[in-house]
């Protein structure tokens, strides 16, 4: 199955690469129209298969169609090109101009926690098609019905070879990324899964780029002035428990000052998290891992744990010590509240691994501390959030959804926003090439 899909993508690659930006836009808009036209069926299937709410899935479908249209409009306007030109700079006065060319067929691995926006027709698929690359998507095993439905809506809209859905196990995923015809990989999932793909690609005689989003605890630093403002608690609790704590930008760690105000803030936050009613998790395996996480936390000495009712149970852990096994990405309605002296904030921030996001909650008198903390966090995270929560990733020009290892495998790239296209294209300098011949490079 995999060889046939790759062969078709390789054959289609020159055709899609030759398409103008306007042609790519029309194709992406047509896919968006197909999804929007089947909205009722999609929402029904996804809610039944995942347990996500109708409101959540409806919003995610809007996001999915919106990013298809946005990226299509972006390339139609020529905004994906570098725009670099140096007239007369070459030997003998030749003009040098940059164009961009697609990398070729891309393997995309669908994520489970965003079955639409990071799924079969999610951001990686949209960005690769916009860049002019055929796509083969490896469906997530947790959502076979959703995956097949979305694929059935895309396939009639696009020419043969532009898009394909691959089923199968882990071995088929390795076969896909090691196929010579595949020229890049987009992945959203666990660190273990992303690392396995990276290791497999590195066995190729021609290693290819792997753009893997692999995990983050998204720390939130509550500075002293903010700790005295308890009206911040509700938004943080909602961010921890929203979508049953299964968002890659969920704040899994909240750092508060060890003080009277910090202690009160921690207690109020833990209580608020424990009161939330959540829906079922995406898979039984995730629910079991969440239950095991609670048992691990309960075995720790010197911590306070608040467990809510229901299954899965929302849980907050208040601890004075940064327990390593609690400071790893964990899906579920859970949070670790770390209470440390404010003088230790900078040192602790500097000890963190790479993150997708880092958030600063600051009061009016906290700017001096924030001025020291922000540069440290910029070295650790792809996005810094100020006085808000990290959930909710806007699809726009300026978004950077990425971060240093091990959050991602390519810290300078983003999987969300218009810059996501850049992962699947590369610049080529044309020196002295007649202007009319530059048209062969399509979009």
UniProtKB/TrEMBL annotation:
GO MF annotation terms: aldehyde dehydrogenase (NADP+) activity
Pfam families cross-referenced by the UniProt entry: Aldedh (PF00171)
Annotated signal peptide: none
Keywords attached to this entry: Oxidoreductase
Residue intervals of the Aldehyde dehydrogenase domain: 4-283
EC number(s) per entry: 1.2.1.4
InterPro entries: Ald_DH/histidinol_DH, Ald_DH_C, Ald_DH_N, Aldehyde_DH_dom, Aldehyde_DH_Superfamily
Name under which the protein is recorded: NADP-dependent aldehyde dehydrogenase
